[in-house]
Amino acid sequence: MASPKILYVEDEITLANIVKDTLERSGYQVQLVSDGAEVVDTMLTFRPDLCVLDVMLPNVDGFTLGKDIRRLQPDIPVLYLTAKSQTSDVITGFKSGGNDYLRKPFSMEELMLRMDNLLRLSQHASADNGQSNLIQIGHFTFNAQKLLLEHQGTKKKLTYREAEILQFFARHMNGVIRKKDLLLEIWGDDTLYNARNLDVYIAKLRELFAADPTIEILTLRGVGYQFNID
Question: In terms of C-beta density within 10 A (0-12 exposed, 13-18 middle, 19 or more buried), how is residue 124 classed?
Fold first, then answer.
């Protein structure tokens, strides 16, 4: 069996390195991220089996990340780490997509026991349901991991860039998407060259979704886009 892949998000560097080293010595593959803003991109490239998230992070807090992760990969286990102790914080954690909640300071033994439990439950769920990692978009089914878009039995293989843009849209269904935000997340800058490339990809996505009248990609002049699903 392959070593479990853990996405570990923590901005306390000393603690993060201790936890990462201990987990790796115990047989886990660990991808450490210290900035919440980098988590979505790491999800797409690393493909973790479990996410361990600190709640108090720069730029994007752990609870918000939990919601974003759930949109990308609905069935992935999420374990929150936090110094917060109020019951309301625990409730917020579960409502934002968390499967478990561990208060700081914690022992490595307890952390690994909780991780192993979540991984075991996730494996059982995957065995029972082969539809993990699927995102329903109107009458289309989008497999973000395999870069596949399916409609009425027909499958279309997307390019990596098309899939990235579609995942961004899927996280913001029926909401306003600022073009600048989209460019910065996908390309890392909002130059005119990249903006023109984005226009081409948007046109391709419109063609792909033309078969479903419930899906509409609107251009909001001077702002960006709206990905509407009736």
Answer: exposed
